[in-house]
Amino acid sequence: MPADRRPAIEGRSAHVIRYPNDVGTERARRAGADLPADSVRTLAIVSRILERSLTDMTLPQFRVLGLIARAPERANQLARQAAISRPSLTGVLDGLESHGWVRRREVDGDRRGVELEATAAGRVALDGAHAAVQARLAELLELVPAARRDAALDGLVALGEAIQIDLEHRRAARDAGSST
Fold it and tell me: Given 51, 56, 107, 125, which residue has the most CB atoms within 10 angstroms?
């Protein structure tokens, strides 16, 4: 009977005995049976770790500023792209505008329409934020065993590709629904 060494708890034995009928459960656990829950937890933790690397902005501000910097955008379109509610977007934009990173402009012929664009200061802040996030991610990846580092990076790339495909499918479905 294989035994694992564990710290003693409240004076109990420090050995865990694995019986043969437990082997299948152990094998399933190692094979990733808990992978989805572990992955969700890992993504949430990584998100928080990366947000802490941002010194001047929040993660939502980072996401929204990145979207605006790609191309000037109307606020209602931006809320959809960022997958946040319009009131939440307003709060994020207020923060970005107060730092001088975003400029709001009225859309000609639309009293309620607002177009957003990143300022030069916003682009500098975004570049700094990208550098900070990339540096922190590189630090985390250094902790991944060298033999598995490429697989971890490949997984991140694959996840990014899946996210892009999902966004395209959602846009197509939304556009199809709005044209009927």
Answer: 125
- Domain borders along the chain are 1-31, 47-143, 144-180
Instruction: Please report, for residues 17, 60, 102, 106, 146, the alpha-carbon distance to residue 78 in angstroms, rounded to integers and kept in the order given.
Output: 56, 12, 13, 15, 39
Distance CA 8, CA 104 (A): 61
Reported as a single tens digit per residue, the pLDDT across 14-61 is 444 444 444 444 444 555 545 678 888 999 999 999 999 999 999 999
Instruction: Please tell me the CATH code under which domain 47-143 is placed.
Output: 1.10.10.10
Coarse DSSP helix, strand, coil percentages of the chain, rounded to the nearest 5 percent: 65, 15, 20
Q: Half-sphere exposure of 157 toward its Cβ, with a 13 Å CA cutoff?
A: 6
Residue 174 burial by CB count (10 A; 0-12/13-18/19+): exposed, middle or buried? exposed
Residues 6+ apart with CB under 8 A from 106: 113, 114, 115
